[in-house]
Amino acid sequence: MTEVMIDKSAPEAGHVEKASIYVEDLVIDFPTDSAIFRRRYMRAVNQVSFVLKAGEALAVVGESGSGKSTCARALCRLYKPTSGKIWLQDVDVNEKQHQLSQRDYAKEVQMIFQDPFGSLNPVHTIRHHLSRPLKIHHPELDDEQIEQRTIEIISRVGLSPAQQTADKYPHELSGGQRQRVAIARALAVGAKFILADEPISMLDVSIRLGILNLMEDMKKDGIGFLYITHDIATARYFAERTAVMYVGHMVEWGNSDSVTQNPQHPYTKLLISAIPEPGIRKDRKEMARKADIPLWTPASVGCPFAERCLSATEQCKTTMPAVTQLAEDHFVRCFLFE
Question: 0.70 cut: is pTM over it?
Answer without folding.
Answer: yes
